[in-house]
């Protein structure tokens, strides 16, 4: 069976310090995964290893069954994995529509051939209009990105991330900095635009985690100590002790 994303005994050391210590993870196509864990557990490092920003010390990363460890972020993106805030760019002076069309055309390789660019344009425009609708920014279609609200900018970033048609999407804390209302609206939006795609998020907000994820991967001290449904993870004694316990302790500490 081919997984959308598979990590095999993945390891990463910085100098003599082992940060990722033998991670195995197999994600089915179409699953939404939240990666959680205490500060410094290695979540961002894991995302950096998957997206090619960092090279593993050992182990394998497979995207749709194909080895991608050792490849550049650009090559990995071309193979169908998109990460927000890394590969994608929102250009402040371009409108919502123009930003989305750039993301789309960039991925279709239009920049290599002007003739191909022209022949693809009608189709690209239609697809871009659809993206504008998908991210709920129809009324802001022609507004420059710089003039959008914060939540709208984040929605646009998600739109640009999915514009290239990647089937595996990595999002770093997609709702960070949003109000409660914006957050619940945004969870619905993420669910909507990632239907049929495989999604991995790094997330600290437990409301988002339990609202969004089919499965949760709990990373503690460079290892995945649990990978299961939200209900099973919530009930997992090891997780309660290692992670949820510590966040209760943090919350209590913050109250003093
Ligand atoms: N380039 C690097 N060189 C050395 N150490 C690093 C490097 N990048 C990360 N680390 C260390 O690796 C550990 C894991 O960091 P990482 O950012 O992956 O954790 P995290 O789980 O994403 O934390 P947070 O939730 O705080 O973002 C930390 O101790 C960090 O200091």
UniProtKB/TrEMBL annotation:
One of its GO terms (molecular function) is ATP binding. SUPFAM superfamilies: P-loop containing nucleoside triphosphate hydrolases (SSF52540). It comes from the Bacteria. It holds the Pfam family BCA_ABC_TP_C. CDD domains: ABC_Mj1267_LivG_branched. The keyword Nucleotide-binding applies. Keywords: ATP-binding, Cell membrane, Membrane, Nucleotide-binding, Transport. PROSITE patterns: ABC_TRANSPORTER_2. The keyword ATP-binding applies. This is ABC transporter ATP-binding protein. The lineage of its organism: Bacteria, Pseudomonadati, Pseudomonadota, Betaproteobacteria, Burkholderiales.
């Amino acid at each position: 069976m081919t997984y959308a994303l598979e990590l095999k005994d993945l390891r990463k050391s910085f100098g003599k310090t082992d940060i990722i210590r033998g991670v195995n993870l197999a994600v089915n196509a179409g699953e939404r995964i939240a990666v959680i864990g205490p500060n410094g557990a290695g979540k961002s490092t894991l995302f950096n290893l998957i997206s090619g920003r960092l090279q593993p010390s050992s182990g394998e990363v497979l995207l749709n069954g194909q080895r991608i460890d050792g490849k550049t972020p650009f090559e990995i993106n071309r193979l169908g994995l998109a990460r927000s805030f890394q590969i994608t760019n929102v250009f402040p002076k371009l409108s919502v529509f123009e930003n989305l069309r750039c993301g789309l055309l960039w991925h279709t390789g239009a920049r290599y051939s002007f003739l191909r660019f022209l022949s693809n344009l009608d189709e690209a425009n239609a697809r871009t209009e659809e993206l504008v609708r998908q991210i709920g920014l129809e009324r802001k279609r022609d507004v420059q990105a710089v003039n959008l609200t914060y939540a709208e900018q984040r929605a646009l970033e998600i739109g640009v991330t999915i514009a290239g048609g990647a089937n595996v999407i990595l999002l770093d804390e997609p709702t960070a900095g949003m109000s409660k209302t914006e957050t619940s609206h945004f969870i619905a939006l993420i669910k909507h635009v990632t239907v049929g795609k495989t999604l991995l998020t790094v997330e600290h907000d437990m409301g988002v985690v339990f609202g969004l994820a089919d499965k949760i991967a709990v990373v503690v001290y460079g290892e995945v100590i649990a990978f299961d449904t939200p209900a099973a993870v919530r009930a997992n004694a090891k997780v309660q002790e290692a992670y949820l316990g510590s966040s209760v302790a943090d919350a209590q500490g913050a109250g003093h």
